[in-house]
Amino acid sequence: MKTYDTLAAVDLGSNSFRLEVVRVSGDQLYPLDSLKETVRLAGGLTDDKQLDEATQTRALACLHRFGERLRGLSPEAIRCVGTSALRIAKNADIFIPKAEIALGHPIEIVAGREEARLIYLGVAHSLFPSPDKRLVVDIGGGSTEFIIGQGLKPLERESLHMGCVNFSRRFFPEGVIDKASMKAAETAARAEVERIAREFSHGNWQQAIGSSGTARALRELLELNGLSDTGITAHGLTQLRSLMVKAGHIDALDLVGLTRDRRPVITGGFAIMMGLFAELGIEQMDVAETAMREGILYDLLGRFHKQDMREATVDEFMRRYHIDNQQAARVNRVALKLLSAAGGEAASENDVQFLDWTARLHEIGLSVSHGGYHRHSAYILENADMPGFSRSDQSRLALLARAQRGALNKLPEFAPEGGLPDNDRLLVWLLRQAVILCRNRAEPRLPDIKVETSGRRFRLTLPEGWLERRPLTRRALEDESVHWHAVGIKFLFA
Question: Which of 22, 73, 103, 373 meets the CB 3.0–4.6 Å disulfide criterion with 365?
Answer without folding.
Answer: 373
